[in-house]
Amino acid sequence: MSSPDVGELEEQAVLNAMRGGWIAPLGPDVDGFERDVAARVGVDHGVALSSGTAALHVALVAWGVGPGDVVPTSTMTFAATANAIAYTGATPYFVDCDPETGNMDPGLLGEVLDELQAEGTRVPVVVPVDLLGKAVDYTSILELADAHGSRVLSDAAESLGATHAGHAAGAFGDASVVSFNGNKIMTTSGGGMLLTDDEDLATRVRYLSTQARQPVTHYEHTEIGYNYRLSNLLAALGRAQLSRLDDMIARRRAVRDRYRAFFADVDGVELFGAIDDAGDNCWLTSILVDESTTGYSTTEMSRVLAEDQIESRPLWKPMHLQPVFDGARQRITGASESLFRRGLTLPSGSALSDAEMDRVLAALSIVTGTAGGRA
Fold it and tell me: Alpha-carbon dihedral of residues 290, 294, 298, 304, nearest 10 degrees?
């Protein structure tokens, strides 16, 4: 669906790092990768880590988030966001989404912050999520968080290369997190990065993510740390990927445009979040199916694709519906549940060839009844 897009440039970058002798975890490519990504996003500091999840976790730890705290976050997200909050002992409070974008509904967030403030609950941070490569309405969310005395940790794991109001995703809030997992817009196989203008936070995260080792010659530790740093070899891969980021985004947009053209005349099917997607990085392209109009469901569509060995997947199952978070506090309108029920994500990667796209569209034609299906 979104396979890694790597080639000779990445191979040479990793080979150069190996031949340079920097096999040990940290090295010059880690330093360079942190500078490159921070410059790309427009912040002062980057800390390369083993995953986006690790970056979320250690940022919360660095701010002292823990038991008794409540952290409002998007319910329409991958489990990593909520898990990182739970790791600290804090409690996630799930906020439903804008049905047009799937991103956190600022109006609901305002209600949640008012409620928690009235009951005297500490809300040290809000964690909004940029869904599928579309940035959250940071203009509204930053204002709300500031008015209630909460930090914002932007979960930009899916949105590197996207923009909001002319600024890069990853540049919003007190800190942000991006992911380089194998299915993301660019990859280091696995990896992530904390991005911030706060030098003290960046220093604290570096310290905690290298086992909280004290600056002495022997191994001295005065608090619990984590083994969360990214290796030099993976950072070398990341630097090569970053140099191709704009081209990979352009390719994903071209894929989306082919879906846009295909579904333009299909009643009951629309591209999710595509009415205003000029600032998106087009990480994944999803559709919404109105079964009462089409006569077929996303399940049937997915089954036909699978018969042709084509992967598809429902939109994220909302966190408030996950058994592991049963009973969690939530402010829900039903918007995310509707998207989960009607949404289907289609092959979207930048490595997708024109011939592979032809095959996907031919399979979709069998379901939609449009011209151009397989002979």
Answer: -170
